[in-house]
Amino acid sequence: MRLFVAITPPAGVLAELAAAVDPLQAAAPELRWTSRSAWHLTLAFLGDVDEAVLPELTTRLERAAHRHPPQRLALEGGGAFPSSARAKVLWAGVRGDNRMLAALAASVAAAARRAGAPPPDEGRKYSPHLTLARCRQPANVAILTGELAGFVSADWMAQSVHLIRSHLGGGAPRYEDVGEWPLAAQPHPGS
Q1: Which secondary structure element, helix H or strand E, spans residue 143, and what is its range?
Q2: How many Å apart are CA 54 and CA 60, to the nearest integer?
Q3: What is the DSSP letter of 152?
């Protein structure tokens, strides 16, 4: 099974982002745009995971989620990896407490590793984003990132993490929720 752990923004926030992104899609049809139903904030990409690992993985992800408080987030601006001039990925940014979000990402990655599903990119600096499009060849998307620069969604409280299965083949990936666990820890004073 091809799995990842993510936060899913609420429908209203996704609708705001879609209103900003729809005109960009028309202006850059050569990009492989992700569908609104596939928009999420990846915390840990796990890749191919043996189904036998799933029971331990779900137990450990539930524990990890319970150690972290809900987080106030918003989508804001946009950018590209590795750069706007030679982009392979166009993304929307995330506004929130990046330290707390990185701690949550590290916690779910550690849970996956302990369960026997180590993330292939574990150890890489966590960069919260929502993937909007992929480029078949490196492309200059500076105009698109410029158009996204002023975008800010409504704030929302991320209340849970999801384990999601990605089904590949036949065009765009299809996502299936395998599990969801609430973020339950009390926020630290001053957070």
Answers
A1: helix 142-148
A2: 10
A3: B
**Residue 124 in tokens:** 């890489």
Secondary-structure class of domain 2-182 per CATH: alpha beta
Residue pair 133/126 in contact (Cβ under 8 Å)? The answer is no
Q: What angle do CA 96, 100, 105 make, to 5 degrees?
A: 105
Q: How far apart are CA 177 and CA 164, in angstroms?
A: 5
Per the listing, tokens 């609420």 go with 10
| Whole-number Å distance between alpha carbons of 178 and 8 | 13
Which pTM value belongs to this model?
0.91
Which uninterrupted H or E stretch holds 68? none
Half-sphere exposure of 65 (CA within 13 A, CB side): 22
pLDDT, tens digit, for every residue of 109-155?
999 999 999 998 877 899 999 999 999 899 999 999 999 999 999 99
The domain locations on the chain are 2-182
Give phi and psi for 143, each to the nearest 5. -65, -40
Other beta carbons less than 10 A from residue 99's beta carbon: 9
3-state secondary structure (DSSP) of residue 55: helix
Adjacent-strand bridge partners of 90: 80, 133
DSSP secondary structure, 7-26, as one string: E---HHHHHHHHHHHHHHHH
pLDDT tens digits, one per residue of 57-79: 999 999 999 999 999 999 999 99
